Each structure stands twice: as C-alpha cells, then as structure tokens.
Automatic annotation (TrEMBL):
This is Sugar transporter SWEET. It comes from the Eukaryota. Keywords: Cell membrane, Golgi apparatus, Membrane, Repeat, Sugar transport, Transmembrane, Transmembrane helix, Transport. Its main location: membrane. It is found in: Cell membrane; Golgi apparatus membrane. Pfam families: MtN3_slv. Belongs to the SWEET sugar transporter family. It is a multi-pass membrane protein. The chain crosses the membrane at residues 121-141, 147-169, 181-199, 205-224, 236-259, 265-288. GO terms for molecular function: sugar transmembrane transporter activity. GO terms for cellular component: Golgi membrane; plasma membrane.
Amino acid sequence: MTSRITCDRRNSFPLEQIYPALVAANQSQCGDLKHTDCKHGSREKERCSFLLCNFVQSVRAVAVQKQQYYYLQSLCETFSTCPMDLLQLLSWTCIVFTVGMFSTGLTDLKRMRESKSTDNIQFLPFLTTCLNNLGWLYYGILKQDQTIILVNVIGALLQIVYIITYINYTKQKRLVMSQTLTAGAVLAVGWFYFSTFLTEGDARLSQLGLTCSVVTVSMYMSPLTDLVNIVRSGDVQCLSFPLTVATFFTSTSWVFYGLQLNDNYIVVPNTPGIFTSLLRFFLFWRFASVNQSSPSYKSMPM
C-alpha cells in the first residue's frame, strides 16, 4: 500500500494531506511509510516518515485513552444507577416484610371472630402499634418518603381493624375505651405540638424522628421481661415464631434502607429489633426439646 504526502516547509503536514497516510499507516503499522513520496529528497522523506509514524502512534494512544475513557464513563453511569436500583429493591423489601409483620395480627383477628371473645389476646400491642404507625406516617409525609408513607398507612389501617374487632368482642369495654381515648388524646397533643410550636424544616423532622425512634425502641424492648420469664420456665409457647421471623426480616430491611438514605432515625430504632429477634430464635432453639410434648411452634402457619 502506498501513501502519498507532499511535505511543505511553509505548511507542515496539514490534516487533509496527512489523513490518507494516517489511515494507511494505521493499517500497516507504519510499515509502508518507507514508500511515501516526498519531493524534497530522501532526508525529507525519512523526516516525513518519522514524524508521521510518531503522529500515528500518538493518535493511537489518544484513541486508546478515549476508548478507556468511554469505558470508564459507561462504568460510572452503570454504578451511578446502582444505588437507585438498590434503594428501590430495599424499598420493596421493607414494604413486603413490614406488611407481612402487621398481617400476623390476622391470626388474632380470626381467633376473636371464631371464639367471640378476646381471651389471651392483649389489646395494648394493637394500640401502641397504631400510634407508632401514625407517628411514622407523619414523619414520612414531612420527609416525602413514599415507602414510609405506604407502609404506615397499611399498618395503621390494619391496627384500626384489630382495635375495632377487639372492642367489639371484649368484656372490658370501659377499660379498652379509656385506653383508646387516652391514646387519641396523646396523639392529638403530639400533632398540635409538632405542627404549632416547631418551625417548618429540619427541626420538626428531627424531633419527630427522635420521638418515633424512642417509641419504636420501647416497643422492641418491652417483651424483654417476657423473655426473662421464658428463660426461667423454659416454655416458648407464648412466643410467636412467624412474628419473630417477620420482625427479624422487617428490622433488617429497614436498617439497610436507613443506611442507604443515611437516616439514623430509621437505622437506630430498628437495630434492637434484630437483636431481640435473634434472642427469640435462640430461645426457640434452646427450649425446643422442652416443648416437644405440646404443640410446637414449628407447626404454626407461616
């Protein structure tokens, strides 16, 4: 292959003259530049060949660097979308596990409707969970987090159904109604305080997040006294294995979701849920042989 270049001292290697030889040199690894015609003689011909070969190598280096740049750019674009994809995955994980945890109350709902009574079913967990859901719902609205809003709307509606059913079948209606009215008053006072005395912005969000975190931690830590009694008696029949599983996965998913958002008000209150669930798993494993004669937790529907 022969490449023709006219070397002119007044205009050194214009692009329109170099480009054909550049293509040829690129294909032949500069091997055919020795055939390049130059009207200024052999020295100028060698100089043209040498400069052109260096130019070709420089262009190749630039091309390689450009190719690497586009490759790195594509990697950056790929990894820049990963956090959003991970956040969406964690969001759906939180929704599924949390709704599943709230749905464990449907078992108690079925028992109340079948027996027409509330024997051995506690009312306060329904009430405190409802208050907790409404508090986190307000937090999600201020933070404009659709995941928190959706989860707590579903949770609050389920707890309201449980509360209404409990009130309908309980024999202690006066006590239950007084507890419900007290919780409603606390909720009204809290809403009035956060909406009136706190300014818009981070101050309200921070104090609301702190309040909701304290309530959530209290709910996770409250069963510890029951766990002490279980250790003493060796009977785990009062524990719900499906609820323990749901609590573990729910707390874990919310911890990772909070870490992704860098929100300590989500991470901190859900961390105790992981440890209390692990402690319950240990109790199920430790005292499983003790409860083999009675209906085991393993036979409970998941």
